[in-house]
Design goal:
With about 350 residues, the chain is of the alpha+beta class. Helices cover about 30% and strands about 15% of the residues. The strands form four sheets. It has a five-stranded antiparallel sheet. A three-stranded antiparallel sheet has the order 3-4-5, with no helix packed on it. A two-stranded antiparallel ribbon has the order 1-2. A hairpin with a 2-residue loop joins strand 1 and strand 2.
């Protein structure tokens, strides 16, 4: 249990709760859920420019990272087809992957196919079920994809001023504006309480909030004097109590709860808002292809990691379809902006390609 680990090393409850957020981030779990300690480890095991456990902002927004990867691939001769949905994987008579078919009917033939879509989309939508072993299909169907995350993007006309560290007269960003700001995280009990409400189908009345202001580091993201605020919040169930849908009313009610919480820490925040975009778990699934809205393509619980990700006997990036490889967050070692799954899958694919 994460709680036992933190109790062993730390005394300060706010510090323990702040660290605990990385153990439940993107997970329908509380700090008291068995296995939650691994998720914390997963989030601090990497490094940035030689600094272990460090995180960083991508200049220009996260899309700039995708563009950098695309430019590097194009420089090596890759052809990139954006806004071209894949309809299904093309299979030969021998059952081997031979390319993909786009929704407009275009066939793109290749000797290997790598998919960074989720295991559910890759194997349940892009491959005929009769081509896959029944136990494999069952395993993919059983992956826990519950997500507690609602992402809210906000545009504000001034920098938030927090009671704990008020802005200076010139309203220039202070050091804390350039970090991840954790709200409603004074104690781990608050996180557990928020989780418990969601398990009963109710959005948390005091949600866990991670607030970032990327424009404090990257002024080009907003007009002069204005800022963009990124809110990563939980817990929100994918399906509300009584089967109620996440309609506009439910979205706005939850967003108002989040904004009320921020207002208590930073008076004037609500008045500074000029626009907001609320993305609940169903929205994240519909827009980004995240199953259940899960940012990791599947829970990071111990039964869905290592040799069991995405299924036992298929954790080495190869799939039951020869020539088809899984290289996204649903493969080992899981989610996070680190590229490990893609790099590992590429090495395996190259080994097989040399044998062809």
């Amino acid at each position: 249990l994460l709680g036992q680990i933190l109790d062993q090393w730390f005394e300060s409850e706010p510090l323990k709760a702040t660290l605990a957020t990385d153990a439940v981030i993107g997970a329908m779990a509380s700090p008291h859920t068995p296995g939650s300690g691994y998720v914390l480890l997963h989030h601090v095991m990497g490094e940035l420019e030689g600094r272990r456990g460090a995180w960083g902002y991508v200049a220009g927004g996260m899309g700039a990272l995708s563009q950098a990867i695309a430019c590097a691939a194009a420089a090596r001769g890759a052809h990139i087809f954006a806004e071209k949905a894949v309809c299904h994987v093309l299979l030969g008579r021998d059952g081997r992957a031979q390319g993909v078919v786009l929704r407009d009917g275009t066939e793109v033939r290749s000797k290997l196919v790598l998919s960074n879509a989720s295991p559910q989309i890759t194997f349940l939508k892009l491959i005929p079920q009769e081509q896959l072993p029944k136990d494999f299909v069952r395993r993919i169907q059983q992956i826990d994809t519950r997500s507690p995350v609602t992402k809210i993007n906000v545009a504000v006309d001034r920098l938030p001023s927090f009671l704990a560290a008020p802005n200076t007269r010139d309203s220039q960003p202070l050091p804390h504006h350039q970090c991840s700001i954790h709200l409603n995280c004074e104690c781990t009990h608050l996180l557990h309480q928020a989780f418990t409400e969601a398990t009963h189908g109710h959005p948390s009345s005091r949600p866990m909030i991670e607030l970032c202001i990327p424009s404090a580091l990257d002024p080009g993201l907003a007009p002069r004097g204005c800022h963009v605020v990124s809110l990563f919040t939980q817990y929100t169930p994918s399906v509300l109590a009584g089967g109620r849908p996440w309609d506009e009313q439910a979205r706005n009610a939850y967003a108002d709860t989040v904004f009320d919480c921020i207002e208590a820490y930073a008076p004037g925040f609500k008045a500074s808002v000029v626009g907001r975009d609320v993305l609940t778990p169903p929205d994240l699934e519909r827009i980004f292809g995240l199953p259940g809205g899960n940012i990791f393509h599947g829970g990071m619980s111990l039964d869905q990691l290592y040799f069991a990700r995405p299924a036992p006997s298929y954790s080495g990036y190869r799939s039951p379809i020869p020539g088809l490889y899984l290289c996204g967050s649903g493969a080992h070692p899981g989610g996070g902006v680190m590229g490990a799954a893609g790099r590992n899958a590429a090495q395996v694919a190259l080994e097989d390609f040399r044998r062809l």
